[in-house]
Each structure stands twice: as C-alpha cells, then as structure tokens.
Design goal:
The structure is a homodimer of 454-residue chains. Chain A has helices at 3-19, 22-31, 34-41, 46-53, 59-71, 75-79, 83-90, 95-104, 107-116, 119-129, 136-139, 153-163, 188-193, 217-226, 247-265, 278-285, 290-305, 307-312, 320-344, 352-382, 390-419, 430-451; strands spanning 146-148, 172-176, 182-187, 211-212, 231-235, 241-246. With 454 residues, chain A is mostly helical. The first copy, chain A, has three domains: 3-139, Alpha Horseshoe (MgtE N-terminal fold); 146-246, CBS-domain; 273-451, SLC41 divalent cation transporters, integral membrane domain (Tetracycline Repressor, domain 2, Orthogonal Bundle). In chain A, strands 1-2-3 form a three-stranded mixed beta sheet. The longest helix of chain A is centred in the C-terminal third of the chain and has 31 residues, at 352-382. Chains A and B meet through α12, α13, α14, α15 and α16 of A and α12, α13, α14, α15 and α16 of B.
C-alpha cells in the first residue's frame, strides 16, 4: 500500500476510534494486510492498539501483526498482554517467530509462557533459543519438508498434503536418509513434472548448498544471494537437517547488515537505537566520540608547539577549517568507497595496492585542483594585507597534502583491516577523519613555518 | 564456497593455466558453480578468461557466468566476443539478462546482435530495453506462467509441463482473462493439493499485489519485502500482465540501494565507480567537494573578521580542530541515524519534532560532557601560560555549542528533506559537516571575544 493510501487509512482509523465506530473499524481492520496495519499501529496509543488487535478475527493475521510490530521494538503493546493472551497468539505463529518474541520478553514472562506451552512446542522453541542470535541456527525455520529418498514423486505429493500442511513455502523439499541426514533436494516443480512412480533418489539433486547452525547470518545471506536460491538448509555437525533459512529472512539480514555498517562507519555503535531513550542513545554514542576528542587534544598540543609561528602570522589560523574540512571529506569519500566495496564484494582485499594507489592518485589530483582554487581565494582575500604570496602557497600546499593523505589513509586503513579479517567498517568514520586532521594540521604548520620563514 | 576454498581453487586454476593442463582445467571448470567462477575470473587475464569460458560444456552455465561477470563491470571480456559468440550465449540466457547485457554493449555491437536475432527474441529484448533502467519494467522477467481461469488444476499442471518449460521459478502461477489481464494467482502448492478437477477460479487468490511498469525499483523491492512474497507481477495501464519481479532481484536491489545511500551520504555520487579509471572517479567526486570548499572559504573569511581577537589571543587558533572535529562527528552520527532510519522505515518523517528534540538533547548532553573534558584539558595544557581560565571556558562552551548545533542540524535537515520528498541522503555528508563547521567557528570566536574581552 502506498504511503499516501496508508496515511489516509490511518486518518480514517483514528477518526473511527475517536467516534467509537466499532463495527466499521472491525471491517477495515479485517480487510487490511497485517504488514500495513503494523505501520499504522506505530502512531496509535497502546490502548487503541489493543482494541484494534482484538478486532482481528483471523488468528494467523494477529500472529503476523504481532511479529511485525516487534520488528520496530514496539514492546509497550506486548507488555500489556498476559501469558494466556500470548499463548493464544503463539499457537498460530511459526516457531522461529515465537522464539524471537520470547527472547524479547522479560525473563519471568518468558518462563511462564514456556511452562504453559505443551512440551513439544516448548521444546522446539527452546531448541531455537539455544542458538546464538546472529547465526544460521538463530534465524532458521524448523518447518521444512523432509522425505525419504525411496518414496516416489506421487508419494511425496501425498506426504506433502498429509504430513506437512503447515510448511509455509515448500518449493524445495529436502531428502534425508534414515538418520535424518541431508542427502538431496527436489523442487516442487520437479515433483509435478516427472512420472509419478519415479523414486526421489533418481531425480534429486545431491550437490546441495547447506550451512552449519553456527554460521554467521551475514555469511548465510551471502550464500543465498550468491547462488540465487530461495532457501538454504541448515545442518548440524553430523549433517542432520535442523531447519532452513528462507529468502525473505535473507532480505531482512541484508538490510540489517547494511544498517549496521552504515552506523559503524559513522561511529554510532552497531544497532539502530534511535527508538531508545535519550539516556541509552547517549551512552552508546559517547565512547565513539572519545577517539575524536583525544585527537582534538593532540591537535591543540601540536598547534601550541607552533605558537611562535602563529604569533607572527595570525592569518595561519584562518585556514585551519578549510584544510581540515577538505581533507576530512576526501577521507570520508575514500573510506566509504573502500568499506562498501569490500562489504559487497566489489573490491577484494587482495587488490590492496591497486586500490590504494588509485585513491592516492585521485587524492593528488583533487588536492591539486582544490589546493589551487583555495590558494587563489586566499590570495584574493588576504593578498593585499600581507606582502607575500607565500601564505597562499602554504595554504594551497597544505590542502594538497591534506587531501592526498586523506585519500591514502581512507583507503589503506580499511583495506589492511580487511586483509587481517577485522571488520573494516569499524575503522572509518571518526578514526580516519581524526588522524587525517592531526596529520594535516602538523603538515600545514610545518610547511607554513618553512615557507614564511617563521 | 568459502573465501578460503575459493582462494585455493583460484591458485589451482592459475597453476594449471601456466602448465597448460587443459584436461584438468576442463574438469575443474565444469564442476565449479558459475557464481564461484565469476569471482575467480576477476583475478585472471582476459586471455585466460576466454580459454576457461569456452571449456565450459554446459551452455546455460556459460550464460550464468557471463551475467555474473557483467555485474562487476568486467567489460573487457565481453568486448572480445564477436556477434556470433554473443548470440550463441544469449540463446541460453533469460530475456531480461540479455537485455541488461545488450544495454551495456557498444552501440554498433548491440544493433548487430539485435539484427541477427530472430524476430521473436529481438522483439522481446527490445520491449524490455524500452523501459527505464531503475523501474519495474527495467528489472522484470518476461517469463512467467499465465493460465486461464477456467482450466482445472490438472490442466494447469499439464500446461506447466508443456507450455512453460523455461520458466525458472514457477511457484506462483498467474491467472489471466482473455485479454491477458491479471485476475488472480495460484501457488504451485495449491495446484498439487486441491482436487485435480477444480477450476482455477475456485481457489485462486484475487486480492493480488501488483506493480506498474513505471514504478521505481526501490518501491517494488519494498513491496516484496513488506508483504513477504516471492515475486510480484508487473502490469501495464490496462492491467495486462507484462512480467514479474522475483525475490532474487529484490535482494540485489536492496544491496544496490543501500550502496547508493551510503555513497550519497559520503558525497561520492550514486554509483559504485571504484572500478572505473582514475579520471572518471575524480570527475565524479570533484563537484561533491565544492560545497565543502565554499564553506571553507566562508570560514576563513569569518576568522579573518575576528583577526584582532586572534592577534590578542593566538591560543584561540589551537582549539579550532577539536571544536570542529567534535561537532563534525556528532553531526555525522545524527544525520546517519536519521537518514538510515528514514530509508528503512524505522523513523517516519511525521516524527520530526520528536526525533529532532531528542537529538538536540543528546547533543547537549554529549556537548556538556566533552566540553567539560576538553576545557579541563585546555586548562591543564595552557592554564599556567595564560592567566585566565576564560580561555578554557570559551573552548568548553564552543564545544557544547558545536555539538548541540551539529546534532540539531544533522537531524533536522534530513527530516525536512524527507517531509518534502527529497532524498535525505543527498543532504548529509559534506553539506551538514560544512555548515556545522561554519556555525561552530562563528560561535567560538564570538564567545571567546566576549569572554576574554577582546
């Protein structure tokens, strides 16, 4: 639903809520897709959320809505639900979504819910909760179709109807041996086009991609994307099939990982915390600024060292912002390109020298162009007052240095981190700009002191 | 295949190439998935690429490999292929991939290829090429299953085998009326579990999500992700079914759009140009630095205006880097959070005041903490030399100002742009940091001039 339509729907719902027009609300709420309702819910009070939630007749839609809401950390609503209400919804929710929700509940509520669940269900959920969050085990769905290799295509279709009515997207059907070990996969399409009496093992694909339960979720997502598949089976150490990771979860992983990288590069931690309180947001961002603070303190010590030069040529100070600004921006450009390139596989860490030397060239060219421009501007503005063009030359050279060094460091640091298998995104942002600042300041004053004979 | 295994495979291939061990190479190349080969190819010479390419027996694998290679803009290899060689591969390639490749060929080659193609195929490709690149029409696949609503489930399955052998992922089968207009959809799963004599219109879903050919690709991707579907049908103005956009393309779109935003926020243009020449990369990045340059020139004019203050208190200059650095980093933090939040739907532009006031609070708290810290450091370093604590106070206040204004602007500007439907990502990066620099410098000198009685 377009943003416009959603806004109109939201206004309608709010108006009907104010009027208490319950039968109209009931109609609307049952006609609207849960994903669209979840967007509207974010702008309603918890009280209104509860009223609307219980107007939804389809329990499966309630389950979808609840899962969608928690993605945006609307925990207020969940907290108003008691154990029985939660269990009622969980009955219609896939096990992996139940596990995700339970993981976010307060400890006592979570335990109360698990206690009241029947054994089979609570075991399944607890199994899923035993895996680390950001691993294949933590994101997999335990609902999949597993068939024996000796049954026929016809038998497989019957089994699909009888034994696996709840499996959401059975486009791949996995084939296992007597010990539940993964031996092959068939597609639903293959099942309908082969002769019904053909046993699975005659047409199943045995060369299967699979991942282990402890694999990092980003690796899993990259495999699904790289090989253009719709799901990947998750196995344990003995190659027993434990679950599958489906492509819709892969999309969410990529968006999450992109957000993580973006936030890391800006020095804001890893998780999207905008929806948290002022105090927690501040606490998360505080340490990332510390490197910058140390760098700034180091910078003013360096400038203090050049005190006598400054006394003789106070104009030097005027150009600090432009020299640092140009360097900072080029450094951000270079490091962003390299970090993103490494993350998407466009750049390989084996290409280090190629990439860094290219960035250095670009930095030198940009530095020469802008150095010249700024030197000219400096001469125009201050040339008459001072009797030397050397200030403008110093400024121009400093800009050139600043921009070249920024391009060099901005590309070199993430590349090196990539080589030694440290996440390159962590180094950029504050780290690169701060070190470029310090080096630029030092170069600037050294150049100016020499050229102006201070 | 893990990065390690891929590296080993690459070394093996290089070694065998040097030795001219063709039959071993042939074996390896035919056993390796095209997606993995494409990664290895990037580190081989064009000559080796050609040799290996023509060792692949499976023409469909060659087609997949060629598509994968062009994703990383390895145009050198494609340029060595003549028209007949291209046609040979295109025969085994889906029409949308052919269209993408042809769009990247030099004009004469593209026309020669289209001329030599048989009419039906070239018409299909030319149709696809008529749509804008980043729209539903530009990314859709014209291969889909379209059935009449009156045929039975059994008839549908037979039709699938007979009429649609090439459709890649027929998990959704679309139902059309006599005028090719989209009226419903059935899933392959439904086909196998209902009674074979049931006509499609009795169990098809009529409430379908569909998109128009001119819809922006990012909107299309968001719809597929929002509703957790595997494909979305693309229709024209008369609701006639023209193609489908599948979930694997949606994954690529999200990654592309994330990269675009990341590059925009750093002021590097929109497309990933790292693989282009030094000259083109420089040309793309040059203009984005201009705002920064203008800002820097404005900054040195401002400081020039405060020349007399500087002459009297040369120490003032020493603190410019730290004040600008802290402001710049907080500004980047805030703008990154807001831009990414808006892009992923975590933040809504309707929440402007809530978000901006929160960011301002955070900026004030961080500014107070770091302002105090830096003022203390300034007093320690320079306190003995000057006889006034007022310098330290000025510096502290300037840091507080800088960081608060940075948080305010960093959140306000993207939010406002979001409200007026301009892409918020464009404004961040150089724009926010440059304006924060200018304002911080002005505040600093104004405060210092007053407090130090200059």
């Amino acid at each position: 639903m377009s943003e416009q339509k959603n806004k109109i729907l939201e206004e309608t719902i709010k108006r009907l809520l104010r009027r208490g027009a319950h039968s109209n609300l009931r109609k609307i709420v049952n006609k609207t897709h849960a994903a669209d309702l979840s967007v509207i819910f974010r702008n309603l009070s918890v009280d209104s959320q509860r009223r609307l939630f219980y107007m939804i007749d389809d329990y499966e839609q309630r389950a979808v809505l609840l899962s969608e809401l928690t993605e945006y950390t609307i925990t207020d609503f969940i907290e108003t639900m008691d154990v029985d209400e939660l269990l009622e919804v969980f009955d219609y929710m896939p096990a992996d979504d139940v596990a995700d929700l339970i993981a976010d509940l307060p400890k006592e509520t979570a335990e109360a819910v698990l206690d009241k669940m029947n054994n089979e269900e609570s075991e399944e959920v607890e199994d899923l909760l035993s895996y680390d969050d950001d691993t294949a085990g933590g994101i997999m769905v335990p609902d999949f179709v597993a068939l024996s290799e000796v049954i026929t295509a016809k038998g497989a279709i019957e089994s699909l109807q009888k034994d696996f009515p709840d499996v959401e997207m059975p486009f791949y059907l996995y084939v296992v041996d007597d010990n539940e070990r993964l031996v092959g996969v068939v597609s639903l399409r293959q099942l309908v086009v082969v002769k019904p009496t053909t046993p699975l093992k005659e047409f199943m694909t045995t060369d299967i991609f699979s991942v282990r339960t402890d694999m990092d979720q980003e690796e899993v997502a990259k495999i699904v994307a790289h090989y253009d598949i719709l799901a990947v089976p998750v196995v344990d150490d003995s190659n027993r099939l434990m679950g599958i990771v489906t492509v819709d979860d892969v999309i969410d992983i990529f968006r999450q990982e992109a957000t993580e990288d973006i936030l890391k590069m800006a020095g804001v931690g890893e998780e999207f915390v905008e929806t948290q309180s002022v105090v927690s947001s501040t606490r998360i961002r505080l340490p990332w600024l510390f490197a910058s603070c140390l760098g700034g303190i180091l910078a003013f010590s360096i400038i203090g060292h050049f005190e006598s030069s400054l006394k003789q040529a106070t104009y030097l100070a005027a150009f600090l912002p432009v020299i640092m600004g140009m360097g900072g921006n080029v450094g951000t450009q270079s490091s962003t390109i390299v970090v993103r390139g490494l993350a998407t596989g466009r750049l390989l860490s084996s290409e280090l020298w190629h990439v860094v030397s290219k960035e250095l060239c670009i930095g030198l060219i940009l530095g020469t162009i802008y150095g010249g421009l700024i030197a000219l501007a400096a001469e125009i503005r201050f040339g008459a007052e001072l009797n030397t063009g050397m200030l403008a030359v110093s400024v121009g050279l400093a800009v050139l240095c600043s921009m070249s060094i920024a391009a060099l460091m901005g590309s070199l640091v993430p590349m090196i981190l990539g080589r030694i298998h440290v996440d390159p995104a962590v180094a950029t942002g504050p780290f690169v700009t701060t070190s470029v600042d310090i080096i630029s300041v030092y170069c600037y004053f050294t150049i100016a002191t020499h050229l102006l004979g201070l």
